[in-house]
Amino acid sequence: MKLxxxxxxxxxxxxxxxxxxxxxTPDSFSDGGLYFGKEKAIEQALKMEEEGADIIDIGGExxxxxxxxxxxxxEIKRVLPVIEAIVKxxxxxxxxxxxxxxxxxxxxxxxxxxxxDISGLRFDPKMPLVIAKNKVPVCIMHIKGxxxxxxxxxxxxxxxPEIVDYLHESIExxxxxxxADDKIIIDPGLGFGKTLGHNLEIIRRLNExxxxxxxxxxxxxxxxxxxxxxxxLHADERLEGTASAAAIGIFNGANIIRVHDVKAMVRVAxxxxxxxxGFEGSRIQGVK
Length: 288
Known about the structure:
eight-stranded parallel beta sheet; alpha/beta; two-stranded antiparallel sheet; 288 residues; TIM Barrel; disordered C terminus; 9 helices
């Protein structure tokens, strides 16, 4: 299974890939405000590339539980200068984390080459057309509700089948817009309309989502379920918990791990890959 676009190639038969999170927001749950300024954001992008990130995911609107929406104009104002500067300085691809077609269109014009849509193409009907026109990969995620209300007592009759059905419908939306099948990535949406128990069940049963034969994006990084399991630890104390979830996710079929702590998670992924496949070669070499 490969993902090939523009000048990039991800070969998932060889290893797990790392997506570094770059929030240019004042209010994200873990790192809100840290990289809100353009220069700080550029510095962090360069650092993540140096630490081994394979792709950088830039977001201008917080999607933490309870987050309020911001305008398209404000979101573009936050992400565009950062994308324009970063793509001139790094060799790895840039993803735009947005569910708004106008933001995606502006970001792709500025040099981004992947769209990461938390709504699974549901919140903005124009989004699939923008992606199709630009012939770029899209990450489609499962979410129950919206960021504002998704954690208000989320309930499921059958968790995994409902996630699978949602993703199947999103894939059909993508196909209807003539988004190429080999450009679709799926994400079960850890923490997006899920309780602690739901998140743990998704990690345990992740391989049941692999039937789509599409790359799986997996985002456990510093999530609240990790803090809950560790006695209420703050987001910046969840490194080991994230590492554990990431390793198990890789064993159960994850292909791309979306993380804040790139250096540590590159190492986790390389060891998990090596143990999973029994291969001791290039996966382990070159890790800093």
